[in-house]
Amino acid sequence: MSEDAYHPHETGPLPRLSEIETIQDTIDRLLASEKIDDRLARLISPGASMGGARPKALIDWNHAEWVVKFRESGEYTDTPLIQHATMTLAQQCGIQAAETHALKLSRGHAVAVRRFDRTQDCRIHSLSAAVVLRACGEDPSYCALSLWLRRKGSGVAGQATLDRHELFRRMVFNILIDNNDDHEKNHVVQMSDDGSFHLSPAFDVLPTGQALGFQLMRVGAHGTESTLTNAMSEHTQFGLTRDQAAKEIESIVRGIDGWIPYFRSCGITESDLDSLAAQIDRPFLLDQRRDW
User: Fold this and answer.
1) Which of these, 58, 187, 193, 235, could form a disulfide with 129 (CB 3.0-4.6 Å)?
2) Are the C-beta atoms of 45 and 51 separated by less than 8 Å?
3) pLDDT of res. 210
4) How many CB atoms lie within 10 A of CB 256?
């Protein structure tokens, strides 16, 4: 323990990028209820649980920590590659998303997501929206998180205002890309040196393919309804004028309109594109983009 320096819990050396195939094989063996030895167990037991249902591992890559997510057993689509394509598309839409890399495996891909709560020298204090909203007695809501950032966010260079605009873009992107897994644990704030907070990079952003028609966080006056009308209904809660909010939505719409050629350029197969299009381009969402 030290008050002056970050000393991570000692768990032994992290696996390296070169061991990715072995990690995938180990996961497959575990899912098949096969026995594995201690050496292989080390590859998939880096420490505390990272949450979520998808098989994951923590690796050291170029002196940084990366979370690697693997394809689930029996999964028909190359979900890790789809996540990489979605996260990089979000970046093209002006969203600050965590750095990702698609890792080619003998069967499909894994996606490596760089940890944004660690540096070589320190651990960045991070809290999920679930924690901060529960602490102030608020229900899960994009608007409530925006107002929390107005109170607790950094005033340096208008960072709180920028974060609130960013949160609006993320909400609209989630709606139009059919990401319904946008619950409050998938939004994180991080503490700055002055004790204020800012949004972490976006993560776990990809189409869920469920065509639910609602988000898991409240969007606006119409509750969790996945519509641009709902997103616009409380635009002032994000510090945006109506014209500013409309321009933000228009920018996201134009980015989503090009998702098929962009995903294809990332290596997504035609069969996976067809599967995704059945959700992202279904009339409920496509008509909203066309009418905007």
Assistant:
1) 187
2) no
3) 87
4) 24
**Which domain CATH number covers 32?**
3.30.200.120
Residue 144 structure tokens: 């409530």
Domain co-membership, 144 together with 263: yes
190: CATH? 1.10.1070
Q: Which domain holds residue 146?
A: 126-291
In the block, tokens 């894994």 appear at: 110
- Residue 5 in domain: no
Q: What are phi and psi of 60, to 5 degrees?
A: -100, 125
Domain count, the chain: 2
Rounded to an integer, what distance in angstroms lies between the CA atom of residue 259 and that of residue 263?
A: 6
**How far is Cα of residue 244 from the mean position of the Cα atoms in its chain?**
24
Residue 241, classified by CB atoms within 10 Å of its CB into exposed (0-12), middle (13-18) or buried (19+), is exposed
The rounded distance, in Å, linking the Cα atoms of 273 and 263 is 8
Q: Which two tokens stand for residue 49?
A: 């649980």
Rounded Cα distance, 255 and 208, in Å: 18
Q: How far is CA 281 from the centre of its chain?
A: 21
Tell me if 238 sits within 8 A of 167, measured CB to CB. yes
Low-confidence ranges of the chain (pLDDT < 50): 1, 9-11, 46-50
User: Are residues 88 and 139 both part of a single domain?
Assistant: no
SS3 123: strand
- CB-count exposure of residue 151 (10 Å: 0-12, 13-18, 19+): exposed
What b/e readout covers 257-275, taking b as 16+ CB neighbours within 10 angstroms? Answer: eebbebbeebebeeebbeb
